[in-house]
Amino acid sequence: MKNKFLILAVIFALSLIALYFFCYSEIVPATDSGYFPVAHGQLKNAKSKIHIIMFKMEFYSDYPDSHANQLLDDLVSAKEKGVDVKVILEGGEDYLKGFTNRYACEYLKENGISVKYDPEGVTTHAKLVIVDNAIILGSTNWNFYSLDRNHETDVLIKSVAVANHFEQYFDNLWKSSKETTCSRKL
Question: pTM of the entire structure?
Fold first, then answer.
């Protein structure tokens, strides 16, 4: 009788732990220019990993204090603290007519961050930031207009289960993406 009770107690305890880790989440909306403080805060507090999939990421050499540059600098700082930082960028399909993420790519690679361009023949339009057990998902690119002028909608989701789902998505895309010299694919 004691063994059955013990087994049931262990199963119940494990179920509660699983329920907490897979169902508990905190959701924080971030709209328009409200994206920057949310993303900046998450990146600065990263402990183990930052994995990003981004359609458009800009580095502005003439505007070092721009929000886009500050987010890139957050990635560099995280890398320097030992955080695993990887970035997948859209490489530029023919129909995008010269579109490039070249300058952000070069800046990140110069600072030791692993960057890949997405596979050719498919446009990666995602805007996904995974930081430890949280994600930021929405419409905001890392460029001046998205961060400072446009109407954008995003959400920060703190959830182990959701972060794990998108981490698996990131890993699959990472494996199918190619190392880049940061030049255009065109």
Answer: 0.86
